[in-house]
């Protein structure tokens, strides 16, 4: 690769009679920087950006070089939006619902409670108008945005006591952020925000009674299964998509082939993250069942689910009332769900139910 | 692009003092040919190869050119394996279970009745050992093989009469190919093979009583909903993956960057086909419900499902007994299913059930 570059440079000099700049520009190496919310070794998430950078470098024969800065380097895990917007970084990998304060309409591109599952969400993004809406939200900030990987269906959390009715939620101290936290709060839950590093001991000491994190793969290393016995299926993030951000000026500087290489590498890395999450969650849940036989899987009773749904609808309606663009995005996902879920029900759901052996 | 090529050629001549061959080789254009089972305009499937070729050409800045020959050109829709093997074509896009006669162990890479759903199947391919097994099957033929797109969960077929018990299957004349056909045949169904173009009139005239095709998106244009009222959820192809084949000699000739471009373009095109199928099936099913309100969705009764499963297990065991490699692949998928399905059940399945509003 280096030999080739030297050679090309030599030619560019030797053949100045030709318009050598075209060649020089085409073969230019672009050193891009990427800031991610995650640490350098966060399972699945940090692997996604590494995997993306490797594909882009290899496909471009080294003309794209992507330096990845983890949160330990830039110290601003929730400042990715600002840093890519300002041009301090060319690219970012983060979740759009972290920026509720600065760019509130972005959160719906991560997930909506009682919303789309991962394949339904990708269908909406790529074939149901989602990409266009996301562009309308991000372009005014000089940013391009692409789906960056799906966590799959997230679990509803770890509870020390079984939730048998709505009453059991009243006064319960729980860590659950974002829109899910707002909903839980309306139902009488004392929602608290505790840094990840302190969650285990907070649950152990009884500072909190319950904690929602992600799913088996990322929950297992947190150790919740050692303390809380009840593991609930989720309602709040049925297919959470993280995202890539690209500074528009960086993008516009790149030749068309490198733009396409970046686009396709991001798209594949995102899909791969969904599939890797699926695999890792399955493996971790299997290990959990084996090593912690006391852990019980639970589903919230209909009374609780109905209240969660009603409250979600109420809050979403409040957001929609305040902002026409919020209404546009929420409605687009809701309308799409009505159609796509019918298909999910007669295909995967019917199959999973009718072929169930236990 | 052409200008640049002319310019590069001129340089190669002008600078013969340098080792110009390195440059010439790196910038060489590779004209590859692809044979597909499908017609030039088959929905979803033909779009997948077009989409793949476009990505590869754009990412390689035109150094890869892929000519797609549909079945109307090469006249051998089920001869893709042989034509890519012999080098008559560089690439192929087909389904591995079409080659049961020549390479019987390949069929398990498409789908297995009562097997993995699409995300479970991709997890198995990419993280659960599937790719390695597929390589063991295809390499001896001088072929590389990659997942080529998933149809999603296929429907169980169109029936003119409701299937209420096992007895209703006896003597029923049905179009359903492959392993599903063998299973149905064991249960007393008169399985017939009728060319696609004649299926509609065969069902209309009563030559057959039922027809299994794919799913709403591809079934709708066939017109079955005009004749048969009962549309059953499937059991036989829960996540059918088509595939790309690449001639090994072609592959080995390509520089590493173009190999990676091909690999990633195939991977993305495959995932995109799954998502496009999801979307198109949802839209077609919605349209069907609206325009043909008589169409009823049905699930086979437990008695029928249990018999189908038992017979499937029996036939798979027979295949496994005859061939150690068949046993290895079947066992690998079955073992993986046992683990991954537990995760599907507490995530997507539990969510779909608990959040269901109707």
From TrEMBL, chains A, B:
<protein>
    <submittedName>
        <fullName>TRAP transporter substrate-binding protein</fullName>
    </submittedName>
</protein>
<dbReference type="InterPro" id="IPR026289">
    <property type="entry name" value="SBP_TakP-like"/>
</dbReference>
<dbReference type="InterPro" id="IPR018389">
    <property type="entry name" value="DctP_fam"/>
</dbReference>
<keyword id="KW-0732">Signal</keyword>
<dbReference type="Pfam" id="PF03480">
    <property type="entry name" value="DctP"/>
</dbReference>
<feature type="signal peptide">
    <location>
        <begin position="1"/>
        <end position="24"/>
    </location>
</feature>
<dbReference type="InterPro" id="IPR038404">
    <property type="entry name" value="TRAP_DctP_sf"/>
</dbReference>
């Amino acid at each position: 690769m280096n030999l080739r570059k030297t050679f090309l440079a030599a030619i560019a000099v030797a053949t100045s009679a030709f318009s050598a700049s075209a060649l020089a520009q085409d073969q230019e190496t672009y050193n891009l920087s990427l800031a991610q919310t995650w640490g350098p070794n966060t399972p699945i998430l940090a692997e996604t950006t590494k995997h993306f950078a490797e594909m882009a470098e290899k496909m471009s024969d080294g003309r794209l070089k992507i330096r990845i800065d983890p949160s330990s380097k830039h110290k601003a895990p929730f400042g990715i939006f600002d840093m890519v917007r300002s041009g301090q970084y060319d690219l970012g990998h983060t979740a759009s619902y972290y920026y509720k304060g600065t760019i509130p309409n972005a959160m719906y591109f991560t997930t909506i409670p009682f919303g789309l599952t991962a394949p339904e969400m990708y269908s909406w993004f790529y074939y149901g108008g989602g990409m266009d809406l996301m562009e309308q939200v991000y372009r005014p900030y000089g940013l391009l945005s692409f789906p960056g990987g799906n966590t799959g269906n997230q679990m509803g959390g770890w509870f020390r006591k079984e939730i048998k009715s709505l009453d059991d939620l009243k006064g319960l101290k729980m860590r659950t952020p974002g829109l899910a936290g707002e909903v839980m709060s309306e139902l009488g839950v004392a929602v608290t925000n505790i840094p990840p590093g302190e969650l285990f001991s907070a649950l152990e000491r009884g500072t909190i009674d319950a904690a929602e994190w992600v799913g088996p793969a990322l929950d297992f290393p947190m150790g919740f299964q050692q303390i809380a016995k009840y593991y609930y299926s989720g309602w709040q993030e049925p297919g959470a998509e993280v995202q890539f951000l690209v500074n528009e000026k960086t993008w516009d500087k790149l030749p068309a082939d490198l733009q396409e290489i970046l686009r396709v590498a991001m798209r594949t890395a995102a899909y791969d993250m969904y599939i890797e999450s699926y695999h890792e969650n399955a493996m971790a849940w299997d290990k959990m069942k084996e090593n912690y036989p006391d852990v019980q899987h639970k589903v919230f009773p209909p009374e609780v689910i109905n209240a969660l749904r009603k409250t979600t609808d109420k809050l979403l309606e409040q957001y929609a009332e305040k902002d026409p663009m919020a209404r546009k995005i929420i409605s687009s996902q809701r309308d799409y769900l009505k159609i796509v879920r019918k298909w999910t029900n007669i295909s995967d759901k019917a199959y999973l139910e009718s072929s169930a052996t236990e």
